[in-house]
Design brief:
6 helices; globular; mainly alpha; 3-stranded antiparallel sheet
């Protein structure tokens, strides 16, 4: 199931740039800027500072999104809830 979730996440962020801003991660995940910044501060996502703002490598975002930490968040964004439902339907249909 973990492999399938990772592949699902890869498709989810396929069209994202190789390096994202906090606002872009916010848009992709449906979580607020404060949550995204908290993930960075806690080391859940790696980021570097460019021109006084965090930049998140797509690879780092994928690692986090494909983790059980992200998938099992206690408070889920509307985006994450919808994506989990989509993933579960996909698994049920054998896709």
């Amino acid at each position: 199931m973990e492999k399938e979730w990772r592949e699902f996440c890869e498709k989810w962020i396929l069209d994202c740039p190789d390096v994202l801003t906090v606002l872009e991660v916010k848009a992709v995940t449906g979580y607020c800027k404060t949550s995204v910044q908290g993930w960075i501060d806690r080391g859940l996502i790696s980021a570097c500072i460019i021109k006084r703002s965090n930049r998140i490598p797509k690879k780092s975002l994928l690692e986090f999104m494909s983790s059980s930490t992200f998938r099992n968040m206690h408070v889920k964004s509307k985006v994450l809830k919808a994506k989990i439902e989509e993933f579960e339907r996909m698994i049920e249909n054998g896709n």
